[in-house]
Design brief:
The strands form 3 sheets. This protein has a 10-stranded mixed beta sheet with strand order 14-13-12-11-10-9-8-15-16-17. A 4-stranded antiparallel beta sheet has the order 1-4-5-6, with helices on both faces. The protein has a 3-stranded antiparallel beta sheet with strand order 2-3-7. It has helices at about 45-55, 60-65, 115-135, 150-165, 180-190, 205-210, 220-235, 250-260, 290-305, 315-325, 375-385, 400-405, 410-415, 425-445, 450-455, and strands at about 1-5, 10, 15-20, 20-25, 30-35, 40-45, 70, 90, 140-145, 170-175, 195-200, 240-245, 265-270, 315, 345, 350-355, 365-370. By secondary structure, it is of the alpha/beta class. The chain contains 15 helices and 17 strands. Helix 3 (about 115-135) runs parallel beside helix 4, helix 5 crosses helix 7 and helix 8 (about 250-260) packs parallel to helix 9.
Length: about 450
């Protein structure tokens, strides 16, 4: 897509300020992108010329202010930072696991433990008090592992305590599926727990990346667990998580063909393995350029499947489309940059508090549940905690996608460089590659937007 820029300017004795933006030309339409506010504005050549000539009508001025492309008398609301008010909580339930995935970074064989019932009660009490004091109506909790179903009794304890606490909540788990019996599947459905199953594609690909602790294939056990979940009522609400490595990246198209044709899967999330200090085989990591290329491969394959009559959504593509279409805020990693410590909090098995579930580095700790109010702990920690260091490079100041990215994944950057400096090269490369393609899709193929996002846009 052709791209140009419009610099900021003032009208009416400096009371109306137009903010610098990027202009993408697609299919005869002009798409203005405000990289600092995260909004877009679609117009024709005539309106674009009005803006360039600084002869903007009152009606157009109002629309530009609505979309964050202009402000009056210096009042700007669109670029405001999210308030510190976590609602998403991840609790380390167990480090025990029945699989030994090649990309696991937890060294499970060296430290197998499960959270005690007493500590879980303390964390729940802490969260209920936090929600009450800060008038939070909804909280979202993910029991984490290892394999969380190894701690199924703790999951039931969590559900029971939250129900008694009279707060609206949603529990989700991500499981390898091998331990899902008909009874467990039925109980998960009765408790209205969201479930995602880790599945790495065709049986031979999956088994090569996700063997059992004894080194045996796991695919058949996973498939049995999936069928048990479907039979228990999860047919239309079961999600899947697939991890791509250098070993299986070239099989992406075949994996998606298998998902829609053989398994009738209609939604999944694609994760790409990145380097971490605990990763045992560094050779399976992709480069930022390969990661970006895969985004286009994925998008093109999804479009191809939709044209063939299949309905399938990938959550990262969905959320980035919603970023453009409605300034979506649902994804705590890629909708407004990393919101670790702002909207997301992780707890370990000792009650220590972290701004992200992907790291338990001591220097990232916000404190412990015994140390007092969560908001105060976060506010104090933001002054000195390395996790909250600003991520920035010279190219960020002129990037159309800054609002969504803001330097990318903090934990990924720490793992890669052992310090928070610069930006996450993976997210930067992916955004610069994928977002222009999504803008083009918005203009050239709008009828596919609703099935790709599973969202009504009318």
């Amino acid at each position: 897509m052709h791209r140009e820029q419009i610099q900021d300017f003032a009208l009416r004795d400096n009371s109306f300020i137009f903010h610098a933006c990027h202009v993408f030309h697609a299919n005869g339409k002009k798409i203005l992108v405000n990289g600092k506010a995260g909004t877009i504005f679609v117009c024709d050549e005539n309106i674009l010329n009005q803006i360039k000539a600084k002869t903007i009508s009152d009606d157009l001025q109002f629309k530009l202010i609505q979309r964050g492309f202009a402000s009056v008398d210096g009042h700007e609301d669109f670029g405001a930072s999210p308030e510190i008010l976590p609602q998403f909580f991840i609790i380390d339930f167990t480090r025990a696991c029945n699989l030994r995935c090649v990309y696991c970074f937890r060294h499970l064989e060296n430290n197998i433990s499960t959270i005690s019932a007493g500590m879980l009660d303390k964390i729940i009490d802490y969260l209920l008090l936090y929600a009450s004091e800060h008038r939070i109506r909804d909280i979202y909790i993910q029991p984490w592992g290892g394999e969380p179903l190894i701690a199924f009794e703790r999951i039931k304890q969590l559900h029971r305590r939250l129900t008694d606490g009279k707060i609206r909540f949603k529990i989700t788990i991500e499981t390898n599926g091998c331990l899902v019996t008909p009874s467990i599947a039925r109980q998960l459905n009765e408790m209205d727990i969201g479930v995602g199953v880790s599945l790495d594609g065709l049986p031979e690909i999956h088994d090569s990346q996700r063997p059992t602790a004894a080194g045996k294939p796991s695919f058949e056990a996973v498939l049995k667990g999936i069928n048990n979940l479907w039979d228990a009522g999860f047919r239309d609400k079961l999600g899947f998580v697939t991890v791509l490595t250098r070993n299986n990246k070239d099989d992406l198209n075949n994996i998606l063909d298998y998902y829609v044709a053989a398994l009738d899967i209609n939604k999944f999330k694609l994760n790409v393995v990145k380097d971490s200090p605990n990763l045992q085989d560094k050779g399976i990591c992709l480069s930022p350029a390969e990661y970006a290329e895969l985004q286009l491969t994925l998008l093109n394959k999804l479009l191809d499947l939709h044209r063939k009559g299949y309905s399938i959504t990938e959550f990262n593509i969905r959320d980035k489309l919603l970023n453009l279409l409605i300034r979506g805020k649902t994804n705590i990693c890629i909708s407004q940059g990393c919101l670790g410590g702002t909207k997301l909090i992780g707890f370990d098995q000792s009650g220590n508090i972290y701004p992200c579930d992907l790291t338990d580095l001591p220097e990232f700790s916000l404190g412990n549940i015994e140390d007092g109010d969560l908001i105060l702990l976060i506010s104090e920690s933001r002054k000195t905690n390395e996790f909250f260091t600003r991520k920035w490079s010279l190219s960020c100041g002129n990037c159309p996608w800054w609002f969504y990215c803001k330097g990318g994944c903090t934990s990924s950057l720490k793992y890669r460089r052992n310090k928070i400096e610069g930006v996450d090269p993976f997210e930067c490369a992916a955004n610069r590659t994928l977002y222009p393609a999504l803008l083009n899709l918005i203009e050239t193929d709008p009828e596919v937007l609703e099935p790709l996002t599973q969202t009504s846009l009318r």
